[in-house]
Amino acid sequence: MNTRFILSFETLVVKLGSQSPLSRPDVSAALLQPYDLLYDSAVQAFYNSDYEKVVRDMEGALSSHREVRRTKVRCRLRCQDQFPFDEAFSDLRFFDVVLRRAACMNRCIEEKLGTQSRHKVSEDVVQDFNRRIPYNFLQMAYQKLNQPDKAAAAAHTYFQANPEHVEMGQDLEQYKDLKGIKEEHFVDQEARPHQCFFTAAGKLYDKGDYDGAIASFEEALVEYYKADEECRALCQGPQKFEDHDHLRYRYSLHELVSDHFTQVLHCEHECVRYLATRPGRLSPMENYLPLHYDYLQFAYFKVDKLEEALQCALTYLLFHEGEEFMTDNVDYYRGVLGHDGKPQEVRTRSGLERRGWFEDFASSQYYSGICVGGPLLYDSVLLVQNSAALNGRQRVLLDHVISEEECAELRHLAHTVTLAGDGYKGRMSPHTPNERFEGATVLKTLQYGYEGRVPMKSARLFYDVSERARRIVESYFQLNSTLHFSYTHLVCRTAITGQQDHRNDLSHPIHADNCLLDPDANECWKEPPAYTYRDYSALLYINGDFDGGEFIFTEMDAKTVTASVKPKCGRMVGFSSGGENPHGVKAVTSGQRCAVALWFTLDPLYRELERLQADEVIHILDTQSLWDQSLTINPKDEL
Predict the structure, then answer these.
(1) All residues at 6 or more sequence positions from 514 whose CB lies less than 8 Å from its CB, including other chains
(2) CATH 3.20.20.30 given to domain 382-624
(3) 424-433, pLDDT tens digit by residue?
């Protein structure tokens, strides 16, 4: 086929569809008002203070927007069924199906909505609806009309997609205090069912209600696959060719169709990201779909339904083939049942489709419920509590990591080298106004040692102790690659006298170390400004002679405490840095609490620069025997 085409593919199929008498839309169908015109009318009414018209037109715009979307989905799915691609077909048959399917979609949509060009909107309007801007106008209009229940619902819906909007957050707090406003008024009117069921299932799972969790996770999967099918159907329409000059676009039919389907495939690929991303967030939830099956296989195990547990475990392995912990679970289920199973299946509009799943409990043996740790490397180190005893995953509590003498030397070092606000951009009270924070890095301490302001032996101890902690964490959690320092900090927090009465805050608020904790969404977002490259964390305590200051783990709600650790000399708590381990520090109400805080990464690109410089200094000291005063190499050059 050598014919050249000036028309884009979508223009071509529109013309083909319009040539058939069957493609002419029913004039009576063109009653749906374009949502961009209604939106513009509502905005103009708002600035004219006509709030009843704002509500009428804005609600109409939202309704029109939903109807356009529903119609496109229904028509495209119906036409895909009507004109399927055969397993074996020629080029001619392929193009015939493509064009007939496109004509069918155009005809169906125009029968429902009228001429499609009436419903084409600008990218700015599309973005406004994606950001839920109409609900901001609605909440203000309902407020002016003295309808606080509807204003609260609109405000809540807007805030879910715009959590950084400070003023809306304040408005929501005011709505909560209004008489007659109840919790059920705060409804997300644009909530995605699959995410709602997933969140509800996670809460039931955390409470130990495994039957309830199973029902909600299964419902979440049904809704997920439905949403996935709809998202992919929406990709079947006209595509953007951003890299092409439409005025010079002259390609053969093969090239034209190829370009179109390349864009469609890219769009369908983005559906995975879209469905796993909550409104208002930049990044998707990691391993979102596989995680359903991970939870389900353990929940089914807990209610003694091993057939279903095996199905879900096998489905998970479709996503993460050979994953060791899930493979072990599959072997266990097969051994108990005495037979093999098949991955779980789900019935969708188009028939049976396999579905599968993820990793969250990556190092745990589910059927025993215990995470078995690796060697502790040092004879003196004592395992106090493992993950199970700490009611979580990837956690450990150790004692005697350092001796009393080493604690005393580090405390003396801290009193000399730490500076107020170090590590907190100079802020002396970064987390609470009731305590003073001081800190020092390894490199700074070595510099003090070189300058004679502290004994070099003490500075070297800080370096060696942090390396000891790194090796223990790397070994205990059985990591298959080197754990690198991301940041090392000798930090003390001191209760400020006269500011401790009636304290109800924390010394360090509940947080996670590599993601942004979102208790309302029961999620932790791995995106900036979080240190997303951090993988493991540890806190090595060097004293316990103070009041308060307990280290606590919580649930994702940042309220329910799952474990509490009382610091003392030589005690170390280690854990993975993700959302599975929200943690904080209770208020220090008297005295000073000091510790070596350590964060690690598995990515060598994010190694701590100061640590690398400190390594060079230590290398010079070790190789040149520079412990006396006759220095032949100036380690300060490295500092």
Answers:
(1) 526, 530, 531, 532, 533, 534, 535, 577, 578
(2) no
(3) 666 777 778 8
* Residue 232 tokens, joined: 């992919």
Residue 145 C-beta-side C-alpha neighbours within 13 Å: 20
Active site residue 593: yes
Buried b (16+ CB within 10 A) or exposed e, 543-568: bbebebbbbbbbbbebeeebbebebe
- Distance, CA of 275 to CA of 231 (rounded, Å): 9
- What are the DSSP E strand ranges found in 160-301? 251-252
**What are 304's two structure tokens?**
């003694």
User: What 3-state class would DSSP assign to 26?
Assistant: coil
Please count the CA atoms within 13 angstroms of the CA of 364 that sit on its side-chain side.
22
Paired tokens of 505: 């805050």
Under a CB-based contact definition with an 8 Å cutoff, are residues 549 and 588 in contact? yes
CB distance 175 to 195 below 8 Å: no
d(CA 541, CA 595): 4
Residue ranges of domains in the chain? 35-185, 194-241+252-337, 382-624
Backbone angles phi, psi at 282, to 5 degrees: -90, -30
What is residue 143's three-state secondary structure? Answer: helix
- Of the residues 107, 460, 593, 611, only one is catalytic, namely 593
- Per residue in 319-364, pLDDT (tens digit) is 888 888 899 999 999 999 999 988 887 545 444 343 333 333 333 3
Nearest Cα neighbor of 159 from 176, 144, 145, 147 is 176
Reported residue count of the chain is 639
Which residue type occupies 554?
Answer: T
Question: CA–CA separation, 512 vs 535, rounded Å?
Answer: 11
Architecture of domain 194-241+252-337: Alpha Horseshoe (1.25)
User: What's the alpha-carbon Rg for the chain, to the nearest Å?
Assistant: 31
Helix (H) / strand (E) containing 410 = helix 404-417
How far is Cα 514 from Cα 347, in angstroms, rounded to an integer?
37
**How far apart are the C-alpha atoms of 244 and 242, rounded to whole Å?**
6
Q: Are 569 and 593 in contact (CB under 8 A)?
A: no
The pLDDT of residue 4 is: 36
